[in-house]
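Dear colleague,

Following up on Tuesday's group meeting, I ran the structure prediction for the two-component complex that the binding team flagged. I've pasted the input sequences exactly as they went in, so you can double-check that nothing got truncated or mislabelled along the way. The structure tokens for the whole assembly follow below. Feel free to forward this to whoever is handling the docking comparison.

Inputs:
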Amino acid sequence: MSEEFSVSRDLIRQLVEGTIDDDNTERLLKLPRKDKDRFLNYIAVLQERVPWDDRILLRLGDKLYVVSKGAGRRETQCECGHSFGDYRENWKLKCRIRVRDTLERMAEVYDPAPAVPEAGWQEIREFFCPGCATQHAVEVVAPGYPVVFELLPDLDRFYRDYLGQPLADEAGDWYEDRSAQVTAHWKQAG
Amino acid sequence: MATIAREAVPHDPARREQRQPTLREMIAERDRLTAETGHYYGVTELSLRDSDPIRYERFYSKLHAAVLAARESARFVAASPGSREMGECLWGIATPEGDTLAVSLGFLSHTVIFPTSIRYMADNDYDVNDGIEDGDVYAVSDGLTGGVPHPGDFYSFVPICIDGEIVAWAIGINHLMENGAPVAGSWATFSVDTFMDGLVCPPMRTGRKLKQESWWKAIWERRTRAATMNILDDKMRLAGCAMILKATHELIDEFGIEYYKRAIREVIEESRRMVVDNMRATLVPGTYNGCAFRLVKYEGLQNVWSHANKNTLIHVRGSVEPNENGLLLDAEGSSRWGYHSYNATPGGVDCAVFLGMINSFSHNTKVTAGIDLAVQRNYPKGSIYNPDNEYTSNANLWAQTVALNSIGFGAVNRAMFARGYLEEVFTVDGNWGAFQGAGTTADGTNYGFTNFEWLGGTGRGAWCYKDGEPLVWAAWSQMATIGDAEEFESTVPPLFYLGRKLLPGYFGYGRYRGGPGNSAVHWCVQPGRHVALTRPNGGLSCTPSVGIGMSGAYPGPGSFMISARGTNLDDLIAEGETPRDARELLAQVEAGALKVKNLEIWKTDCPELALKDNDLFVDAAGSSGGWGDPLERDPRLVIADLDSGICPDYEFVSNMHGVVAHRHDDGHWELDEDATRAKRALLREARLEESMPVENWWLAERARVERRDFAPEVNEMYAQSLSFAKFRTEFTRFWQLPGDFSFGEAEV
């Protein structure tokens, strides 16, 4: 099979917006292999939708992106434009958090009653964008659990080795979890 | 049986006289060649495929057809309902070293345990003393020596030999209806160690020339509670293996032994390359983290075994890192093993984590051991996934290992989302359910049982572009089907279905909701002398089955069950209004229509529940998680859910999604767009008002961590997980604690 497939940007837009119909979804699911240019088309579609000009490097969530700010800055950013700072720091640390740690508060988001998690062993953490209040993440974890860094991408390797389009600001320290620097600063300040 | 192993007529008398390599030598050679070259068995060129692809593919088609035919015939020769009607069985063919060459439909990740069993037989000289011959039959159900996930899953291994040399193994697997543990059923929920796990067989020869020895039947009859079903299943597995053995001999006759020996190495290497290529084509390199929790409430229930009489909060921790050779799945940080039934062995964990891996990366290639090489695993010694004690119980490992699969499978979905292949992307949960038990009819006949129905089909988590569907999915099988109610009614004589349906509102909420889970009401009628049951679910633990929601949505709710013993059901039957699911039962109790002397809601494992006439047993399982911020849900979808009844509580969804609607007299709902807009704005304001910067939360929470101000189970969980360096580093760095901060790890 040497032929290459391509999926139109319009169809990708429908996927992003949730308007794609079942026939087209099935067609995409049944492609013998994936279209190689999907990522670049996807980024182009996403770039049209956001109200800012920063270059999208990766999409992490429905409204959450890693963007290039130029001059060697790569940051996690909400669709509303709020920046969570350096993408190597867990973006959740720059959110606002609401914790549901009683049965009553947990029952507001779980139903029916016997399916509600038990306080004491579990708590529900909701992470909001300080700018637009979008709920970007939910954790249902034990109290005291470190906030989970869901994905730290290795962007240089992705762009260079997977896409064959190295980023201009490649450097040896981009794939490095720096979340502890944030908490160290908090400890110092607190 | 129609097929009998052929007499040992040598293909080549001279070859017959040669000393054949031992299994141990063959495995060492496989390991050496693979390690030295980075290619399976040292195959760097696919010479057979490239020189004559048609012949090569014809060869593989025949191999594949043999295992497909085995399944589609054997389960109709003889089988219990779980195997005949549902996906709870599988056949495969493997290399002499146990590396999978082809598998049938069914629960396909079980193929990854084959090498564990074969390595054990090799290391213990089974082929030297007293020999392995064509058509021998080996039984395997042990986790440590056989790699079997739990002894409820039973394996038959049949060697295929040419001129005295093992050239392949035919293997059949199915989930038994009952496996003879103190807790009746097939997942012994209260096992403390392996001696309470039921019929546990390290690889052992039970038959010759495709015929079981007579004593083997006595084992099923004397050591399990469902002998008839289990003997049927035993015949089923062997019948399928006999078909594979016959087909393999014919294949070798046609293609020649030398072609066969080269081709089986090439198909594995070919698929390894495809899997690695698929990973590279669909993933984004990086580190993906996930977690899950399972509460084990044994305290007060294990008085006989005092060392097990405690609660345990199991921590499931997983990370995924794509690399040049595939990806690494690392479970470091997960809990240590314990005196409970939820431990696994490396083979068993493989069975779980390969569910998602095979589905994601072997879909367009031959399903072989190639993927074993592409998925590197780290299960630290001493952890719940690799106990440093050979007597641990693994009877109910699925109840938590499925969460590790969900973490790995979820990482794949996160990667595909980032990569733009949105059509593939959905929320992975693994909230399964089942019940099991034993009884004695009025005439003294004993029976044991497992009802697999909520294992057969669960809700699929929300896609990133639409709602999840009900029932269509099962992480552990491509054959999503919950089976016929009548099959289970005939299997458990006194239990009848009053209801069997989707449970409204029972899913994770988000911009898109998960597929709803299921609920059934079982009615006990004339139980004879005795009937009692337990329940081994995943998610039956006061927790969702996964700990991290997708893109702002809530993970699917956990499973639960209700026992209603001592009821006025006759009154309700007379009025024609009996409950059909958990919600209806609770509503009828609250309304006073259903009177219950002993109503118990179980959010964790229940002890054995004995049932009498008109007692009810109600379950709920199979829910799945949502995707995206609930306030982003299209209000029209909320209205549709209210109209269909899948969302039964207006106040709940109104506050969840910020939607205002009015109900017409005809029952239909109408959206109030202006009020909805205003409510959403208010809820967003409330989010900001009721929340605080994570920094403020961290400062307060850190003080709590320093005080170790948590429930004893939580403190013990941290003590266990911090005994592994990786999680210790993460934990102490996150909370900015000294490196020697301790929850008492030294005592773990």
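The first strand of chain B starts at residue 89 and ends at 94.

Cheers,
M.
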